[in-house]
Specification:
Blueprint (H helix, E strand, L loop, with lengths): L2 H11 L4 H16 L8 H14 L5 H14 L5 H17 L3 H17 L5 H15 L5 H18 L6 H8 L8 H15 L4 H16 L5 H18 L7 H14 L5 H17 L1 H4 L3 H12 L9 H6 L4 H11 L6 H18 L4 H14 L6 H23 L3 H22 L4 H17 L8 H12 L6 H18 L6 H15 L4 H18 L15 H13 L5 H22 L2 H13 L5 H12 L11 H11 L5 H18 L5 H12 L7 H17 L4 H16 L6 H17 L6 H12 L6 H17 L2 H16 L5 H17 L7 H9 L6 H14 L1 H14 L4 H25 L7 H14 L5 H17 L1 H10 L6 H12 L10 H12 L7 H17 L8 H10 L8 E5 L4 E5 L2 H17 L6 H11 L4 H17 L1 H6 L1 H13 L8 H22 L8 H11 L5 H22 L1
Antiparallel strand pairs: 1-2
Helix pairs in contact: 1-2, 1-3, 2-4, 3-4, 3-5, 4-6, 5-6, 5-7, 6-8, 7-8, 8-10, 10-12, 11-12, 12-14, 13-14, 14-19, 16-19, 19-21, 20-21, 20-22, 21-22, 21-23, 22-23, 22-24, 23-25, 24-26, 25-27, 26-27, 26-28, 27-29, 28-29, 29-30, 29-31, 30-31, 31-33, 32-33, 32-34, 33-35, 34-35, 34-36, ...
């Protein structure tokens, strides 16, 4: 800025004309706001500063406001010396200003300086302002004291750790708590709480002791008592876990004042309960020991209503007089009655206990649930909503327990269902829409936790549901939506027969709601209509009942009206299409000729880009109907449209179109125009590739169905689809549903008898694909499976001839490894499906192949497959070879893999048939001893296979194997202990298994091995806990108190496991404990998902904190865990937020080396993004910005110039994902 321009602006600022002064001050603000603005000299800087300060005193409020704006820009341009002068001048104006208006402007200016000044220059600000503001606390005028406290509160919140004299400020603030002026006391509390967050531990202890000493005084005035109780809550909220050690003194004081408050002193009671809530929220670990005192008093005051006496029993007896009761409640309402604030505070404190101590649910539920249900009758609306929310929180905790098959608390809930339903039914008669919405929130959560509990009580709830659906008030839409959502959930979760008695009454109101103008009501009503279809006709195999027949025509009419309308919301259109599809699929025979009209409308919707996806799904639903709906009127045009969709880029649309094509062809294949079908097959063939295996599977299923339903299409399939299928066989990615669909396709193709698609021709093509020089092992395996399916389908004679050819390949020395490998894989797959005992040379050929390194792995797979399918002949041979090769690790490894294949196959067959007769008891015992003998082997890969074999054998005969494994836990060999512990992990399959009860009795011993002296054993035990938590958490929840401390020990870096390797020119450190720590944190992640209600969140977070400072690989696990934890336990995470700042900041500010390679740079970028995602989740916590260290971290680091753009990009990415999820749900 040139001195000439500056002089012109300053000259106008001094003008007597108010408009000139305003424009000049505005110009000055614009100039100061420019990034490139710099003062020419200290003199000009001083001159501008003085002018801005002078403008604060301008008689025009607009000009003084602009001057305040100028201050925000000016202080960041000032030198430190000038900044100190500006801050000092503002303080002087605040403290010595002659007019109150001037003091207010000075206060506003100081607040602007505090808010806008760069944190790097905070020292100048706090050193200049703090002493003067402390002096201001001694002034007489209330506005000076209040203004000083406001500024001090801002300073302590932002720069508490940088304050020059924290002790002096603390001593100056404490007397203000005894001030007679309420406004001063309130500001002093805020200031002390902000300051407490940055006090040294000894100083914080002194502050708490001072507050408690005052509360211990028996002669404390009521106003003063309220102030000090408020201070307890504010300090607890501010300092978080650091307040925990003071709870033993603070909580009893709060309870004493709560119980001893004078009659009518509801304010004191409210503050006491808020302080107790803060203690639970911010110091949950220390509050745990005091819950026995906190919870009962909160429940007691949840019922505190001194001005209204009501006997619950009388209320139940007079249930039919609800309206009179509501009237009496209105008579009792009193604007001066503030007892509702006490009950509201108590409800929030109870909710805090429920959400923060899920592991105590079995003890908390019986105490809390009856009181909350009783308080549903609360007469104050705001309190009632908090009571509903507390009960919803309780139900969610019960649901979490139910997820891991813990039925104890769920059983308690089911016992309470009748009383809950009575209370809910009474509240549904309430006139308030807010009350109805709250009740339906409770019911929706109840359906989610105990789905079948509502059906028995629907008649009891029906009057309230009807009342909500008939609500025509301006606020009635919300209660209608909630009522319809409840009906939808309840009908989908319960037996349709439970709703049939009330179907007529419900349907009239639901049909009326379909015609509502508000689109959300109409959409929800259509969803309920879709469920009503099941109620009207639970089974398509039976006719519609006489009582239900009158409901069909009105259902059709109201849905058809919505389906035919053009000018309506997309959600309504989609719901109408889905509902009508369900109606036709279940009631098509009743609708008769109307079905044709529906199909014509659906065809029209199929041509509309907005509704086509939903219409495709609707056509598929109708085509799959057991009623055999006649689609002939739209068959041709619909197939043409569906075929065109296969060319679209929309993946969901392609999937839906393929599924619909298959459904239509499966139903009406013989009536479809061959030309249309050929066109569809041509489009589908282009989708058969490795790029999208799900779409590939759907395309192959469509082709398979076409072959079965229309023989004339076989030539097109051979011409279009077969080449793509053969190309797919060569893909190393082929697996799962795509591979199964491919096998079914080849079988159907051979059965069709199409030219060029005989079994021999296809086998030749598969052989060519499997023996290509560049064929991968996985592609060869897939080709072998298809080969075996075709050969086995052709009969035993074909199998015998094929095996002869394959044996010849194995015995031909001129054949290369690729051909032999494919031959072995084919033999193995054939062995699973056919009898190969007629080939005496086969055992020797397979065992000989084990000796060739090139084909040993394939030979092992083949031997396992043949032995699994021909157990009697091959199992003794296999065991004999295992014994013989005990000292040959390479051969032993391949034989053990083959044995594992056999045991796994037998175990799977035993689970499906309920019998283990395929392997005798003697054979099982022999295999067990053989495996235990191999468990101490020196080769790690052999031990891994032994563990898997033992796990599969335990599934086959747990009574034999599990005690033997337990007995080996005391083995002196660490290798043996590792194997037997790892074996248990392989018994923890997803589905329920007969071995589970036996496993439950011994798993605790294996989990204690997390404390084993050998790190490999510890890691195996950690993986057992992780797998059990994921698959069968009910097996481990009772052992968590003993296992968790051992698990947490594995998260700590063990320096004894870090070794240095000398690589000549440099040295490299290797951390042998890294894999163990990774396993431990991965286990913590599983426990968080499955057993959170049995985990102490405070201890969990403390060890997660160490992981945030650990190796890159550990941090990448810990960041998502913390993100998840912030959503599950926001209170506990907020209480530890100040401790989490340091490790997160360290990650963000870590620098890569100057000579770092691209891989290291990319890894660091990934780490930054992972960390920023976690920070974004933390920033969304309700009280995150009240934690001073985190707030400063966000302002100074995350939103700093280096990271701001990345962080904003992460936030935008999250919003887009949330939007996409919301659209998908809708």
């Amino acid at each position: 800025m040139t001195s000439v321009t500056l002089s012109l602006i300053l000259e106008k600022v001094a003008s007597r004309d108010k408009d000139f002064r305003y424009m000049a001050t505005s110009d000055l603000a614009n100039e100061l706001a420019k990034d490139q603005f710099r003062f020419d000299s200290p003199a000009s800087e001083r001159q501008v500063s003085e002018v801005v300060l002078q403008q604060l005193e301008d008689t025009s409020g607009d000009i003084s406001g602009l001057a305040v704006k100028c201050l925000g820009f000016l202080v960041n341009k000032n030198r430190d010396e000038q900044l100190a002068e500006v801050v000092g001048a503002l303080c002087n104006k605040l403290l010595t200003g002659s007019k109150e208006q001037l003091r207010d402007v000075a206060s506003l200016g100081l607040k602007t300086v505090v808010a806008e000044l760069s944190s790097k220059r905070a020292a100048v600000l706090v050193n200049t302002a703090t002493p003067k503001l402390i002096e201001g606390l001694k002034a007489e005028p209330a506005d000076i004291v209040g203004g000083s406290l406001d500024i001090l509160a801002e300073l302590t919140t932002r720069y508490g750790a940088s304050l020059p004299d924290q002790e002096g400020l603390k001593k100056a603030l404490l007397p203000e708590l005894d001030e007679s002026r309420a406004g001063v006391r309130k500001r002093a509390i805020q200031c002390l709480a902000s300051l407490a967050a940055s006090l040294a531990p000894a100083s914080l202890d002194d502050l708490c002791a001072t507050v408690f000493d005052r509360l211990d005084s028996r002669s404390l005035k009521a106003d003063t008592a309220r102030t000090y109780i408020q201070a307890v809550g504010a300090i607890s909220k501010s300092v978080g876990h650091k307040f925990g050690k003071h709870l033993a003194r603070g909580v009893p004081l709060c309870i004493r004042y709560l119980r001893g408050a004078a009659e009518g002193d509801e304010e004191l009671r409210e503050y006491c309960l808020q302080a107790l809530e803060s203690c639970v929220l911010r110091s949950p670990q220390d509050a745990r020991a005091l819950l026995g005192d906190i919870l009962p008093v909160c429940l007691e005051f949840l019922c505190f209503d001194p001005n209204y006496a009501d006997d619950m029993e009388e209320e139940e007896e007079a249930e039919d007089m609800e309206e009179d009761e509501e009237a009496s409640e209105e008579e009792w309402s009193d604007d001066e009655d503030t007892s509702w604030k006490v009950r509201r505070a108590a409800a929030k404190a109870v909710a805090a206990v429920i959400t923060h101590f899920p592991d105590l649910l079995p003890e908390v539920y019986p105490k809390v649930a009856p009181v909350l249900v009783q308080r549903f009758k609360e007469r104050e609306e705001t309190v009632k909503q908090d009571v509903f929310q507390a009960y919803v929180d309780l139900l969610r905790q019960v649901g979490l327990a139910a997820r891991r098959s813990d039925g104890a608390t769920t059983g308690l809930l089911r016992a309470d269902i009748p009383s809950v339903m009575r209370a809910v039914a009474r509240q549904l008669k309430h006139k308030s829409a807010k009350t109805k919405v709250g009740v339906f929130r409770v019911l929706l959560e109840l359906v989610a936790v105990a789905p079948d509990a509502v059906g028995e009580h629907i008649q009891e709830l029906l009057p309230g549901v009807q009342s909500a659906l008939q609500d025509s008030s301006s606020t009635g839409s919300s209660s209608k939506i909630q009522a319809l959502q409840f009906l939808n959930s309840a009908m989908s979760a319960n037996n349709p027969a439970a709703f049939q008695p009330s179907a007529a009454a419900i349907s009239k109101l639901v049909y009326a709601a379909v015609g509502e103008r508000y689109y959300k009501v109409a959409a929800e009503a259509l969803r309920v209509c879709e469920q009503l279809v099941r109620v009207i006709r639970p089974s398509v195999a039976e006719p519609v009942g006489i009582a239900m027949q009158p409901l069909v025509r009105p259902l059709y009419d109201c849905v058809m009206q919505r389906l035919s309308a053009q000018d309506q919301d997309q959600e309504v259109k989609e719901c109408a299409i889905g509902c009508m599809a369900a109606t036709v699929a279940v009631l098509g025979d009743v609708l008769g000729a109307d079905v044709a009209q529906v199909l014509r409308v659906l065809l029209d919707r199929l041509k509309n880009e907005i509704t086509r996806l939903t219409a495709v799904k609707a056509l598929a639903t109708i085509a799959r109907s057991p009623l055999n709906i006649d689609l002939s009127s739209v068959l041709g045009p619909a197939l043409a449209e569906l075929t065109s969709f296969l060319r679209k880029a929309n993946r969901q649309l392609r999937q839906a179109a393929l599924a619909a094509l298959e459904a239509i062809v499966s139903k009406d294949g013989s009536r479809v125009d061959p030309a249309l079908l050929q066109s569809a097959l041509g489009e589908a063939s282009s989708l058969v590739n490795e790029g999208d295996l799900l779409v590939t599977a759907l395309s192959l299923n469509f082709a398979t169905t076409t072959l079965r339903e229309q023989a004339a299409s076989a030539a097109t399939v051979v011409d279009k689809v077969l080449p793509q299928a053969i190309a797919l066989v060569k893909s190393p990615l082929l697996q799962g549903s795509a591979l199964e669909a491919l096998q079914a396709f080849f079988q159907a193709l051979v059965s069709s008898g199409a030219p060029g698609a005989s079994a021999d021709a296809l086998l030749a093509q598969l052989t060519a694909a499997g023996t290509e020089a560049e064929a991968s092992k996985s592609a060869q395996h897939a080709a072998a499976q298809c080969f075996a399916v075709l050969s086995a389908a052709a009969g035993q004679a074909n199998v015998n001839a094929t095996v002869e050819r394959l044996l010849a390949v194995l015995q031909d020395a001129s054949q290369d490894g690729t051909h032999k490998r494919f031959a072995l894989l084919c033999i193995g797959e054939l062995g699973r499906r056919a009898d190969l005992t007629a080939f005496p040379a086969l055992p020797d050929a397979l065992t000989a192949a084990l000796g060739s390194e090139l084909i040993a792995e394939s030979a092992s797979t083949a031997l396992g497959g043949v032995a699994a399918g021909n157990l009697g002949a091959y199992l003794p041979l296999l065991l004999q070879h295992v014994h013989a090769q005990a000292q040959n690790p390479k051969q032993l490894y391949q034989l053990l893999k083959a044995l594992n294949e056999v045991i796994t196959t037998i175990a799977l067959g035993a689970e499906q048939s309920g019998s283990a007769a395929a392997m005798s008891e003697a054979q099982q015992a022999e295999v067990l001893q053989l495996l235990l003998g191999a468990a101490g082997g020196s080769e790690e890969e052999c031990r891994a296979v032994v563990a898997e074999c033992l796990g599969s054998l335990a599934l086959l005969n747990g009574g034999l194997v599990l005690p033997a494994l337990s007995g080996q836990l005391s083995s002196p060999s660490a290798e043996t202990r590792t194997v037997v512990v790892a074996a248990v992990r392989h018994t923890l399959v997803d589905a329920a298994h007969p071995a589970d009860p036996l496993l439950a009795s011994v798993i605790g011993d294996f989990l204690l091995r997390i404390g084993d002296e050998d790190r490999h054993v510890r890691r195996a035990a950690v993986q057992v806990l992780s797998t059990a938590a994921h698959n069968k958490p009910v097996l481990v929840v009772e052992h968590l108190p003993a296992a968790l401390p051992l698990l947490y020990q594995q998260t700590v870096v063990n320096k004894e496991l870090i070794r240095t390797v000398d690589l000549g020119p440099f040295k490299h450190q290797i951390d042998d404990g890294l894999e163990l720590r990774k396993a431990a944190f991965e286990c913590m992640d599983e426990l968080l998902d499955r057993c959170y209600d049995r985990v102490d969140a405070a201890a969990f977070i403390a060890h997660l904190e160490s992981g945030l400072k650990d190796h890159y690989d550990i941090k990448t696990i810990c960041h998502p865990i913390l993100t998840k934890l912030a959503a599950i336990a926001p209170g506990q995470v907020t209480s530890a937020l100040d401790r989490l700042v340091e490790p997160l900041q360290g990650t963000l500010q870590a620098k890569v080396k100057a000579d770092a390679v691209k891989q290291e740079v990319d890894r660091n970028e990934d780490m930054l993004r992972s960390c920023l995602r976690t920070i974004d989740a933390l920033a969304k916590l309700p009280n995150a910005m009240q934690v001073a260290p985190f707030k400063q971290f966000m302002e100074n680091v995350v939103m700093g110039p280096a990271l701001r753009e990345k962080y904003l990009a992460i936030k935008e990415e999250r919003r887009e994902l949330e939007g996409a999820d919301a659209m998908e749900v809708s």
